[in-house]
Amino acid sequence: MSGFFSVLWRYRLFIVQLVRIQLLLRYRRTALGFVWTLVSPVMTMAVSAFVFSHLLRFPMQQFVVYVFSGMLPWLLLSNSVTIGGATILNNENLLRKVALPIHAFPIAGAIGVLVDNMFALVALFAIALVMGAPITSALLVLPLSYLVVFLFVAACSLFFAVVFVFFRDMQHITGVALQALMYATPIFYPLEALPEHVRPWFQLNPMYYLIRLFREPIHEGRVPELKTWIGCLLIAGVMAVIAGVFYSVLRKRIMFRL
Questions:
Q1: How many domains does the chain contain in total?
Q2: Domain around 82
Q3: Which of 33, 93, 107, 254 is at 20 to 30 A from 248, Cα to Cα?
């Protein structure tokens, strides 16, 4: 693991350049450019809040803040898996020509998604304030929330980037699985709205706990308890170890499958 991170540090300028290129290419030749980093999540949140607030009969103002606090970490995960997970395949021509650390690509992909997500935070948070989100000192823990969740999603990005190299059909399957997982995650509804006998199954979802790092400061105006932080760190740490070991075992075979 020390070698894994030392390589990333040695190629840090290369990773910064990868992130820059990723962001530039994503919005190249679009009329709004980087404004899409703000418009897209706002539209997603607005539509979801409108539909689910009517289905679940929640007050619209309160529900917008509730959805906003759950959408941020979810978008960070789903975009890291879909965008970061495709980075090795998307750069296979470069990897064949130049000796570069393969794991730098999915990590850079996850960092690019993180930058997008933090821009979205500014726009969505402005809307949430208008809709009545509480302004408390608990919001100061959001950088730490981002750090913990990013460790998890960066590991997911690396894991799926390797999986996609060996099983390319998994790109399409993963897209469907993420859609299903989104509705199995309490983003649009509280866990208490579900029948009591099914709640333990939903609590097996790691995103249920990671979302609380954002929902409690933003929606409830309080700092998550210490056990919540410890649990989320364990989830992120376990995923990082799994992804690191998975990559280390298959690293030498990746170039033969590109």
A1: 1
A2: 2-257
A3: 93
